[in-house]
Amino acid sequence: MGFNCSFHSSSCLYSILFLLVCASWLGPQLALAKHRGITRRYKFEVRMQNVTRLCQTKSIVTINGQFPGPRIIAREGDSLEIKVVNHVKYNVTIHWHGIRQLRSGWADGPAYVTQCPIQTGQSYVYKYTIKGQRGTLFWHAHISWLRATLYGPIVILPKRGVPYPFPHPLKEVPIVFGEWWKADTEAVINQAMKTGSAPNLSDAFTINGLPGPLYNCSVKDTFKLKVKPGKTYLLRLVNAALNNELFFSIANHTLTVVEADAIYTKPFKANTILITPGQTTNVLLRAKKHHPNASFLMAARPYATGPATFDNTTTAAILEYVHHDPSQKPKTSKLPLIKPKLPFFNDTSFAAKFTSKLRSLANSKFPANVPKKIDRHFFFTVGLGLLPCSKNQNCSGPNNTMVGAAINNISFVQPKTALLQAHFLRQSNGVYTSNFPTKPPTRFNYTGTPPTNIMLTKGTRVMSLPYNTKVELVLQDTSIIGAESHPLHLHGFNFFVVGQGFGNFESKKDPTKFNLVDPIERNTVGVPSGGWVAVRFRADNPGVWFMHCHLEVHTSWGLKMAWIVQDGKKKNQNLPPPPADLPKC
């Protein structure tokens, strides 16, 4: 049906004028709506599921019966509502690793830090909005060692119509590294904490939940990536392993790093990628122009610098080329399988060179807003030590002690109620104290001969910051029990990695070499073995934010602490009240 009227009709003129006004008002609104985020809803049912790996079946904790767990896909600006229903005997929480959680700290997920756990038969809806982030992150359980099997990727696409700052790939593929035990991982860590000894090692590493062909009884459990000659693929790498940093390489192929921890980087080529637990890295894989008549191993194995034994095995997937023309397929289906050459397990030199290549784009579209004027300087030692065991324990350390881990000699004690709730309700008495030390209690040669007294102090201490404080934090490894690389993860923030080096940090000399122009911005950084790293961040997110080593064994031993960021003066600088369904302890 058409729209007919006479221009001599006053009612018709009014109608046209009304339509023109509506169009002028709706036009910008529609354009805005195109870029405005939507709300995406997911349901996570926490269930036990029988899974077979390495010829052995065991019952594991899963989301919706999937291992690894389901992929979350969203766009920058979207809101997420994820209902988690707990059907297992364990208490559960889920952390959305790397999500800034601006003014949504109640949804961050670490048990007894931002929430009490979801108990058996209960549920909780995690609600948050993705603001100013795009790229690869991941989710995982954040209580005890449940994240051994409870994890999955988060893919954040740019807003509609906004391109990647690199060649658009034909396909995007998550490559999620994990760690597999034949034993029940809850039993493994509980036994270790009782006896004071190191927990039993994992039996395999996995790529997308599969150990691959280099393990016994595992050829059929191998992830295969099929590619077309000449095409470009975006691999979204996630290290969800519990206790191991990993080297990753694809035989006879060069990768281009374009993103780290959901921050675009200046592209650089690498044959091998180093990725710590808690880190994500996006790489472009350009397939060879012509079918190579070979298949290629995609392999990962540990980067291990500490004194303890480790799972020195290699997980692998297979890169296979497909033919454009099926008639060109080789008559024999058995193609040669080419293996990559990975660095030695303790190649600290490679690790330092690789991390030094990571740089922010630092351009007008993606600026690097590095804090220049610093309000608070902190110097934190991170490492191991000894803790006394109780009289009814028979621990393996000298004089009935066990290995512990600490920041500034404080081994964190998990509270029995959530820190965020205690902070919000102003009921900190008996829960935590705000006297976390700004520096270690005594100075010593941190990376040289350790002091004779290596006992640690237990406590639930936090560091309180006024809103918008500009922070510089130096993290210093120590040689107590043994120097070791520690991947430190900060919840609620990204930070800029402005400097790093080996040996002891020198406060007069080292800051002169800081990169304040285009440092990498990320949420998890490896403190170099026998060295230090300096980071800067702006405390612009009110709430309580966990900071811990992402080697799960070190977190269990106490290498963790929390920052409290106070409310700002404006309404949009305050932490809102807790949601009605927040779990109770």
UniProtKB/TrEMBL annotation:
The gene is LOC110709415. It comes from Chenopodium quinoa (Quinoa). Residues 1-33 form the signal peptide. One of its GO terms (biological process) is lignin catabolic process. Binds 4 Cu cations per monomer. Keywords: Apoplast, Copper, Glycoprotein, Lignin degradation, Metal-binding, Oxidoreductase, Repeat, Secreted, Signal. Its main location: secreted. Lignin degradation and detoxification of lignin-derived products. Coiled coil: none annotated. GO terms for molecular function: copper ion binding; hydroquinone:oxygen oxidoreductase activity. It is an enzyme of class 1 (oxidoreductase). The keyword Repeat applies. Pfam families: Cu-oxidase, Cu-oxidase_2, Cu-oxidase_3. It is found in: Secreted, Extracellular space, Apoplast. This is Laccase. It catalyses: 4 hydroquinone + O2 = 4 benzosemiquinone + 2 H2O. Its EC number is 1.10.3.2. Its cofactor is Cu cation. InterPro entries: Cu-oxidase-like_N (IPR011707), Cu-oxidase_2nd (IPR001117), Cu-oxidase_C (IPR011706), Cu-oxidase_fam (IPR045087), Cu_oxidase_CS (IPR033138), Cu_oxidase_Cu_BS (IPR002355), Cupredoxin (IPR008972), CuRO_1_LCC (IPR034288). Belongs to the multicopper oxidase family. One of its GO terms (cellular component) is apoplast. The keyword Metal-binding applies.
